[in-house]
Amino acid sequence: MTTTQSSTSDESPAGRAPAGDRGRRRAVVIGGGLAGTTAALALADAGVRVTLTEARPRLGGLAFSFRRGDLAVDNGQHVFLRCCTAYQWFLDRIAARDLVTLQERLDVPVVDAATGRAGRLSRAALPVPLHLAASLARYPHLSLRERASVGRAALALRGLDPADPALDGIDFGSWLAEHGQSARTVEALWDLVGVATLNATAGDASLGLAAMVFKTGLLSDPGAADIGWASAPLGDLHHGRAGAALEAAGVRVLLRSRAAAITSDGALRRVTVETGPGRTEQLEADTVVLAVPQREAHALLPDGAVEDPEKLLRIGTAPILNVHVIYDRQVLDQPFVAALGSPVQWVFDRTASSGLTGGGQYLALSQSAAQDEIDLPVAELRDRYLPELARLLPAVRGAEVRDFFVTRERTATFAPTPGVGALRPGPVTRDPGVLLAGAWTATGWPATMESAVRSGLQASREALSALGLPGNNGVLEAA
Ligand SMILES: Cc1cc2nc3c(=O)[nH]c(=O)nc-3n(C[C@H](O)[C@H](O)[C@H](O)COP(=O)(O)OP(=O)(O)OC[C@H]3O[C@@H](n4cnc5c(N)ncnc54)[C@H](O)[C@@H]3O)c2cc1C
């Protein structure tokens, strides 16, 4: 991977192409998260000469890992579902399929910390919606009456069109209440899934996005909600393999290179990139894909490129906290478990992927919609979570804690609040040479890796179309 901080030999500071490349269209992609990496690959695959510029020293954006001593730590547990077809296309494109695990069949152990009772949400080999019916009928965390009411609400949800703008302004919690859902069904089922996928509780989530998640995940294809996760550090996928794929595609990658401005001069775009202290480089391009978070996009968009740029700033953000605990022995004998009746939400075993050796176990707690906890001191989080883990997992009671630390992502996702759909822009701006990408743009999906990849595909498709180049590789349609 090229990590140049100044002009490379094949390109003058003004960005002129070498002789062999004359006539080839040029693109600059700003942001090396999943959206930008996807856009860069799709443009390069269509024959465009691409430079990708990323402010940080690594690719992967919000889905990354770092070292803590001998341990490879993910900043946050990242899961995907079988219905995340664009993300799986991305995994194939960067040759990283071997670094993920995808369940053959949805199977989620759910433990109620208050009672110690364990249940499962799983699917049978039956058509939708019967694939979940048997599991729901046996789900011990709801009464018979509550289980029946869940079935009725699920059928009502199936009739909604997530793209209907009227749903965007309604909150999911009110809709669930109107459809007979008790506080317990919300906690034990709707929020169990919804908080992890939307990064908001039902009352804070747009009905449109919630309907999209539940319809696609649980009510489309029987296998849609089978769960996948990285079996290696996220950086091995989103930096290592992605970087190798970009290099093989001929993309010039500039790390530690922050785009500071985009200007338009007729058909030409110029991107000013800060490549080091006091050093800048001007990149010329026919098209620019801006694949950065909404606040950064607002700062970089050329004047007049979008009708109401302030809308971007009205898209809020939501935090995710991860609590990492290393025990001296194995305390969880499943890849993950979801919790009820506890502040703990989802617990994942990261022992193998982190490289932990010596017989201990590394658990990562993924705490979504963590507004109330994101700034708490580590000591307070330790006092809160260690006893909770002992309540949930009996084997923890005799175990010694070897390490405890937290990772905080204050702006992990865009906030999926009612009304957010009307604020999310599509890829096209008024400037045909400037496209928007990012999980926060209008993909129909909540802020996920799937949304990021889809946005990169959307933006590259529109960029190619504006350049008059064929490039519709069918991935989006298939996805
Ligand atoms: C803790 C956590 C847990 C999550 N869990 C899940 C999960 O389980 N499943 C799931 O699907 N999703 C999950 N997500 C969400 C997922 O990580 C994001 O939706 C996705 O990675 C966003 O990708 P992106 O490319 O749109 O944006 P980003 O990842 O934000 O990438 C934008 C990039 O632009 C760069 N940049 C910004 N400004 C500039 C500039 N001026 N010049 C150059 N570069 C710039 C940034 O450094 C960054 O690398 C989680 C996120 C977090 C933080």
Which key terms come to mind for this protein?
3 domains, 32% helix, alpha/beta, FAD/NAD(P)-binding domain, disordered N terminus, Zeta_carotene_desat/Oxidored, Polyamine Oxidase, Chain A, domain 2, oxidoreductase activity, 479 residues, FAD/NAD-bd_sf, 15 helices, Squalene-associated FAD-dependent desaturase, binds flavin-adenine dinucleotide
Ligands, deduplicated: flavin-adenine dinucleotide
Residue windows where pLDDT falls under 50 for at least 5 positions: 1-17
Supply the CATH class of the largest domain: Alpha Beta
Task: Count the DSSP helices.
Answer: 15
- Calculate the mean pLDDT score and round it: 93
Question: How large, in whole angstroms, is the Cα Rg?
Answer: 23 Å
Helix content: 25-40%
Note the beta-strand portion. 15-25%
Helix/strand class: alpha/beta
| Main β-sheet, spatial strand arrangement | 8-7-16-17-18-15-19
Q: How many domains, in number, for the residues?
A: 3
Strand tally is 20
Which second-level CATH architecture of the largest domain applies?
Answer: 3-Layer(bba) Sandwich
End-to-end separation: 29 Å
What is the fold named in CATH at topology level of the largest domain?
A: FAD/NAD(P)-binding domain
Largest sheet: 7 strands, mixed
Determine the CATH superfamily of the largest domain. FAD/NAD(P)-binding domain
Shape: globular
Descriptive report:
This protein has 479 residues and is of the alpha/beta class. It has 3 domains: 19-62 and 234-315 and 422-478, 3-Layer(bba) Sandwich (FAD/NAD(P)-binding domain), CATH 3.50.50; 65-101 and 317-414, Polyamine Oxidase, Chain A, domain 2 (Alpha-Beta Complex), CATH 3.90.660.10; 125-222. The chain contains 15 helices and 20 strands. It has helices at residues 34-45, 85-93, 130-138, 144-158, 165-168, 172-178, 183-198, 207-218, 234-248, 294-300, 310-313, 351-354, 378-392, 449-466, 475-478, and strands at 26-30, 49-53, 65-68, 71-74, 79-81, 100-102, 107-112, 118-122, 227-230, 252-254, 258-265, 268-276, 279-285, 287-290, 317-327, 336-340, 346-349, 361-368, 401-414, 434-436. It has a 7-stranded mixed beta sheet with strand order 8-7-16-17-18-15-19, with helices on both faces. It has a 5-stranded parallel beta sheet with strand order 10-2-1-14-20, with helices on one face. Strands 5-9-6 form a 3-stranded antiparallel beta sheet, with no helix packed on it. Helix 1 (34-45) packs parallel to helix 9 and helix 2 (85-93) crosses helix 14. The longest helix is centred in the C-terminal third of the chain and has 18 residues, at 449-466. It binds flavin-adenine dinucleotide (FAD). Flavin-adenine dinucleotide binds next to helix 1, strand 5, strand 11, strand 15 and strand 19. This is Squalene-associated FAD-dependent desaturase. Its cofactor is FAD. Keywords: Oxidoreductase. Residues 34-463 form the Amine oxidase domain.
